[in-house]
From TrEMBL:
Function noted in UniProt: Involved in mitochondrial tRNA methylation. Specifically methylates the N1 position of guanosine-37 in various tRNAs. Methylation is not dependent on the nature of the nucleoside 5' of the target nucleoside. This is the first step in the biosynthesis of wybutosine (yW), a modified base adjacent to the anticodon of tRNAs and required for accurate decoding.
Keyword Cell membrane: no
Pfam families: TRM5-TYW2_MTfase, TYW2_N_2
Family classification: Belongs to the class I-like SAM-binding methyltransferase superfamily. TRM5/TYW2 family.
Naturally occurring in which organism (per UniProt): Odontophorus gujanensis (marbled wood quail)
Signal peptide region: none
Every SAM-dependent methyltransferase TRM5/TYW2-type domain range: 193-463
Gene that encodes the chain: Trmt5
Alphabetized Gene3D superfamilies for the sequence: Met-10+ protein-like domains, Vaccinia Virus protein VP39
Reaction catalysed by this enzyme: guanosine(37) in tRNA + S-adenosyl-L-methionine = N(1)-methylguanosine(37) in tRNA + S-adenosyl-L-homocysteine + H(+)
Annotated region (Disordered), positions in chain: 475-495
Protein name (Swiss-Prot/TrEMBL): TRM5 methyltransferase
GO cellular component term, pick one: mitochondrial matrix
Keywords: Cytoplasm, Methyltransferase, Mitochondrion, Nucleus, S-adenosyl-L-methionine, Transferase, tRNA processing
Length: 495
C-alpha cells in the first residue's frame, strides 16, 4: 500500500474511496492514519553493529522514559536489577471485554507494541472492562487523532484517553537501552559479540572495561541460550592461534558445540581457534570441490574445511600444529562419521607440505585416471600463510613433468593496503618467485577491522615453480612469459 500510494495516484484515490466505505480493514485505517498525518509503523531505523541484529527504533522526544531505565543507574558497575524499576504514565482506552480483540485489530498501529509489555491490562474499577494501552509516541499529549476517533465511533467506544501508571522493570528494557543508561554519556555502548555455542565472545574497548562484568551479565540475561560471556584480552599472536580470555559472566565452561553448514563441531574455545564469521567461506571453498578431488588443509583447525570435503567424497589430508586442534579434529571426524575418510596430522605446516603433501602429489603423477580430478591446497592462516608459499618452489624438482598435476592453492591473508587485492597478489608472487598475473583470483572474505581486510587468493602453482623447469617441454617458462603487476602498471602509465 505504501508503494502504491507513491506509484499511482489513481490507485491511491481508489484506495481512499474504499476506506470511506470499509472502515473495518486495518490496512485501510493505516492509509487513513497516513492521511491524517500519523504514519503507523513508519519509523526511522538504524542498523547497528552491536549486541543486536534487529533494527533499533529512533525514538521521538515524547515520553522517552518508556525506553529508558531510571537515571540513577548511570555509572553502575555491579548489576543491580532492582535499580532499573520506574513508573511511566501511558495512555489507555477503557474497552468492554467482548470487543477488545476487535479494537486491537483495528488500531494495531496505535496500540503499544513493545515486546515484553502487555497491551491489555485489568481495569481496577470495572471487572467487565479492560484497559488497552496505547503507544505514547502515537498518542502525544494523550489525544487521539481524527482517524482513530472514527474507528472508536464505529465500535461504539468512548474516545476519552486516560492515564495509566505502567510499572517498568529490568526485564522490560533491551540490552542496548540498559547499557546506554549505565555507561557514561557520549561513549559507545555496544560491542559486537560472536556466538560460539553457549558462549558469547566480546571484544570490549578500553572505556568499557570497568563495566565488563555488568555487560557480560546483561548479555547472559537478554540472550537465551548464552550461559557464558568471555572477553579477549590480547590479539591472536601465539603459535597455536588461540588467545587469552577472561570470563565476564556465567559459567566457566568453555567446551562447547556449534553447528555450521549442517555439520556439528565440538571444541574447547579457550584452546583452539574458531570463528563463526567464516561459515560462508568454508561453504564457498568446499563448493568448488568435486567427488574424488584431493584436499590438503595445511592449517585445518578442528576441521571446517576438511570434514565437509570428506563428506563430499574427496580425498582429504588435514593438518594442524596445535595438539588441542588436532585432538578436536579427530573428535569431530568421529562425530561427523568421516574418521575413516580423513588422514589427520599434527605437524608444522612446512613439514606437512614437504612431507605428506609432496608424497601425495608424487602419487598423483603415477596414477592413470579415467576421470580428471583436481588437487586443492587450503592455507587458512591469514597472518602467516603467504610466507609459506615459498615451500612450493621446486617442490617436485626431479619428478616427471606434468601439467595434469598443478595444485590449486587457496591462500588467506590480511591486508591494510588501499588496494588489498593487488597487495595480496604481489606478496604471493614475491613468496613464490613468479608472476601470477592473469592466473589468479582474489576474494574478499570479510572486513576484520577498519582498514583491514581478510582476502583469499586462489591460483594454480605455475609449472616452472613446482618443477623447476618449463612444463610441458618447449613452452616458455611462466616466469618469462607473464608480466608482473608492476610491469603492467608502468606500461599503463607510459601509455
Amino acid at each position: 500500500l505504501w508503494r502504491l500510494g507513491y506509484s499511482a495516484r489513481l490507485r491511491k484515490t481508489n484506495l481512499y474511496r474504499t476506506a470511506a466505505s470499509d472502515t473495518s480493514s486495518p490496512a485501510v485505517w493505516m492509509l487513513l492514519a497516513r492521511r491524517s498525518g500519523r504514519v503507523p509503523g513508519l519509523f526511522a531505523v538504524v542498523q547497528r553493529k552491536g549486541f543486536f541484529t534487529m533494527p533499533e527504533t529512533v525514538q521521538p522526544s515524547s515520553n522517552p522514559e518508556l525506553y529508558s531505565p531510571h537515571p540513577d543507574v548511570r555509572g553502575m558497575t555491579v548489576l543491580n536489577r532492582e535499580a532499573f524499576k520506574r513508573t511511566v504514565a501511558v495512555p489507555v482506552l477503557k474497552v468492554r471485554k467482548e470487543i477488545v480483540h476487535t479494537l486491537l485489530k483495528s488500531l494495531k498501529h496505535t496500540v503499544l507494541q513493545r515486546p515484553g509489555l502487555k497491551r491489555v491490562v485489568e481495569d481496577p474499577e470495572d471487572e467487565d472492562s479492560k484497559l488497552v494501552i496505547l503507544d505514547p509516541h502515537k498518542v502525544p499529549e494523550f489525544s487521539l487523532g481524527e482517524s482513530e476517533r472514527e474507528v472508536l465511533k464505529q465500535l461504539h467506544i468512548n474516545p476519552e484517553v486516560s492515564k495509566y501508571n505502567l510499572e517498568l522493570t529490568y526485564e522490560n528494557f533491551k540490552s542496548e537501552e540498559i547499557l546506554r543508561a549505565v555507561l557514561p554519556e557520549g561513549q559507545d555502548v555496544t560491542s559486537g559479540f560472536s556466538r560460539v555455542g553457549h558462549i558469547a565472545h566480546v571484544n570490549l574497548r578500553d572505556h568499557q572495561l570497568p563495566y565488563r562484568h555488568l555487560i557480560g551479565q546483561v548479555i547472559v540475561d537478554k540472550n537465551p541460550g548464552i550461559t557464558c560471556v568471555v572477553n579477549k584480552t590480547n590479539i591472536i599472536d601465539s603459535t597455536y592461534r588461540n588467545f587469552q580470555m577472561e570470563v565476564l559472566a556465567g559459567e566457566s565452561n568453555l567446551v562447547t558445540k556449534v553447528k555450521e553448514n549442517n555439520f556439528t563441531y565440538e571444541l574447547d574455545f579457550a584452546k583452539v581457534y574458531w570463528n563463526p564469521r567464516l561459515s560462508t567461506e568454508h561453504g564457498r571453498v568446499v563448493g568448488l570441490l568435486k567427488p574424488g578431488d584431493v584436499l590438503c588443509d595445511v592449517f585445518a583447525g578442528i576441521g571446517p574445511f576438511a570434514i565437509p570435503a570428506a563428506k563430499k567424497k574427496c580425498v582429504v589430508f588435514a593438518n594442524d600444529l596445535n595438539p588441542e586442534s588436532y585432538h578436536w579434529l579427530l573428535h569431530n571426524c568421529k562425530l561427523n562419521k568421516v574418521d575413516n575418510k580423513i588422514k589427520a596430522f599434527n605437524m608444522d605446516g612446512r613439514d606437512f607440505l614437504l612431507g605428506p603433501v609432496r608424497e601425495q602429489l608424487r602419487k598423483e603423477l603415477t596414477l592413470v585416471k579415467e576421470q580428471k580430478t583436481a588437487f586443492h591446497i587450503v592455507m587458512n592462516l591469514p597472518a602467516l600463510a603467504i610466507e609459506f608459499l615459498d615451500v612450493f618452489r621446486h617442490l617436485l624438482a626431479g619428478e616427471p613433468c606434468s601439467t595434469a598435476v598443478l595444485p590449486t592453492v587457496h591462500c588467506y591473508g590480511f591486508s591494510k593496503h588501499e588496494d588489498p587485492a593487488r597487495d595480496i597478489q604481489e606478496r604471493a608472487e614475491a613468496s613464490l618467485g613468479a608472476s601470477l598475473q592473469g592466473q589468479c583470483s582474489t576474494y574478499l572474505v570479510r572486513n576484520v577491522a577498519p582498514n583491514k581486510e581478510m582476502l583469499c587468493i586462489t591460483f594454480q602453482i605455475p609449472a616452472d615453480v613446482l618443477y623447476e623447469q618449463p612444463c610441458p617441454a618447449g613452452e616458455e617458462p611462466a616466469s618469462k612469459r607473464l608480466r608482473t603487476s608492476r610491469d603492467f602498471t608502468e606500461e599503463h602509465l607510459r601509455s
